[in-house]
Amino acid sequence: MPLPLDTDRDLQPLNSFGLPGRAAQFIRCDSVDSVQEAVRLPVFAQAARRLVLGGGSNLVITGDFAGCVLAPQIAGFARVGETADAWLVDVGAGEGWHATVARLLDEQLPGLENLALIPGSVGAAPIQNIGAYGLELTSRFHSLQAVEIETGALRRFSHADCAFGYRDSVFKRAAAGRFVIVSVTFALPKRWVPMVGYADVARGLAQRGVVDATPRDIFEVVVATRRAKLPDPAVLGNAGSFFKNPVVDASTWARLSGEHAEIVGYPQADGSVKLAAAWLIDRCGFKGQRRGAVGVHDRQALVLVNHGGARGGEVLALAQEIMGTVQRRFGVQLEPEPVVV
């Protein structure tokens, strides 16, 4: 049976920012075989522009997409083995990220609870090396499978192959635009240790009177914290944290901390310091500000929001204004997280 091909597909409901745009062609794939078939179709293989669309939660659409969109919506959840230290669980790329974290807890497989309530799909998570509350995906990643667009071949990527960095991976660099991730295998610790060093997590547990935190305790605190700070995309369109936390060298940190006693920074193992982008943006007066239909969330300066009717160009204009102001005031360059198409 031929794959269903949509034309002039509305992308507004398929991106969490709620930005308008239509795709000239759109292919939905629900299996590895269908992805392999799709990448060989002339409408995709020969398209002037191609986009692999997951959950649409890390995307800024700037208008109509004159090309072909491939949406891998592959389900699946299975224990596939173990190592000396971890249980291995394989999850389809189309599964929702938060639902997967919750299911793993239900299956007595903790380890991802600090990453609860992050929007998007499982397949998108390794691309960004998502992270929150003291944990990055790289710490719980074993391998993934991806279809090579040029050949249709199925390839397995090891942890080393993915070359993870801060909000970064090989899929944003050398392998960008070359693969469609179809499944991810997680390595979940057999000897679980709570990660409670992040201030918001520690504070939330203390407020609940929790001394010996369980995975469920941390999950509930993270969910409550995110809900208190971050807008629900179903209510107020957004793409989560819009900017990466910039990393500066020791000399730059010495200058900044000398000039701004309250600046927030987190020392890294290599001597560099990760700055809190939200603090920089807030000190520039952007929190709660609005530019027409777009604005900065009033409880989290890292989040740009669509108040209704915004277009991608307006989002990018506000982002550029913020980046320019932070650069002039602090001498620090912010880098956006979302993909712009």
Automatic annotation (TrEMBL):
Record keywords, A-Z: Cell cycle, Cell division, Cell shape, Cell wall biogenesis/degradation, Cytoplasm, FAD, Flavoprotein, NADP, Oxidoreductase, Peptidoglycan synthesis
Pathway(s) annotated for this protein in UniProt: Cell wall biogenesis; peptidoglycan biosynthesis
Membrane-spanning residues: none
InterPro entries noted in UniProt: FAD-bd_PCMH, FAD-bd_PCMH-like_sf, FAD-bd_PCMH_sub1, FAD-bd_PCMH_sub2, MurB, MurB_C, MurB_C_sf, Oxid_FAD_bind_N
Reported cofactor(s): FAD
Active site: 167, 241, 337
Main subcellular location of this protein, as a coarse class: cytoplasm
Localization per Swiss-Prot or TrEMBL: Cytoplasm
EC number of this enzyme: 1.3.1.98
Family membership: Belongs to the MurB family.
Chain's role: Cell wall formation.
Protein name (record): UDP-N-acetylenolpyruvoylglucosamine reductase
Native source species: Piscinibacterium candidicorallinum
Lineage: Bacteria, Pseudomonadati, Pseudomonadota, Betaproteobacteria, Burkholderiales
